[in-house]
Design goal:
Blueprint (H helix, E strand, L loop, with lengths): L41 H4 L6 H12 L8 H7 L4 H13 L3 E7 L5 E7 L65 H4 L13 H12 L1 H4 L7 H16 L4 H9 L9 H11 L20 E3 L6 E3 L7 H5 L16
Antiparallel strand pairs: 1-2, 3-4
Helix pairs in contact: 2-4, 6-8, 8-10
Amino acid sequence: MDTQKISVPSPTSSPVRGDATPSSGVVHINFRHTSRFTVIGNHLAQHRELSLLAIGLATHIQSLPAGAKIGIKTLAERFPESEARIAAALRELEAHGYLRRTRERLPDGRVITRTCSYNQPGDSTPHKHPAARPQPRPRPRRPAREAPAPEQSPVPAPAPSPTAPTTPKPQPTPTPHPAPQPASARAQHPPLPAPHTPSPELLRTAVELLAGLRRDTPQLVLSERDVDHLGPAVAAWLEREAAPETVRRTLTADLPEHLTHPAGFLRHRLTALLPPPLPLAPPRTPVHRVTPFQNCDGCDRAFRSPTPGHCRDCRTGALHPPSRATVQGCSG
């Protein structure tokens, strides 16, 4: 009879009885869940293309109740992964059909992000809210067959009452939409300025100014038609008290090197640089002029008069003329 060796440890019994115990690999010890559990398909748990973070994130999202916050910042506060890794995992789930994010505008004007989690990636039908999905309609029950009623004599149908003829409702006339304008009409130039009170002298000065531009600036060679077309614009400048030399200096200053359309260039300057009318000059205040003193040619007294001559006493022949030593003022 052999003695039992105490130093040899006794072998532990397998948790799975019978021949179900595999020789290697994982052994599942399963207990039946009756509450607080989530069903996850093997297509997600064993996905070949999703990362482990994406699979775990999808499992976490599917275990949350409806209405839970699953923003990137919320998930980053819940798990140790960074916001960049969580955002990348959410994009993976979106690409494989497990997640759908849409932006919606509420009646009060706010814009929110609606997120839908799919436990089956094949269902890509957009739903605004899980509660908004159409419910299956119940099948109508067939009514029980009743015994046939005894035959009755047919009752004559009442004669149809005459109805008043219905007048057709007037159809609303369609609102004519304006025809789209061509590109050439949309790109029209602004109108040229014109004088308020044109005069022949003003237009002649303007035409002479335009025709003489090529004397000093050979680039500004205008045709007779261009001169007649731009003449009223130059007359508008002259009417606003702009000197002809000022207009000539404005039109010829800082010309581009290659000027291919001188008439269009002058049209732009005459329109864009039109000076405003000068304000009205204030009324001049009357200047009070003082009549100067004059020495009388007869008695040498001082008197006020615009011109030299005799004082009033000498003109009237007074008997007692004043002495020359006393100079007194005498009204003229």
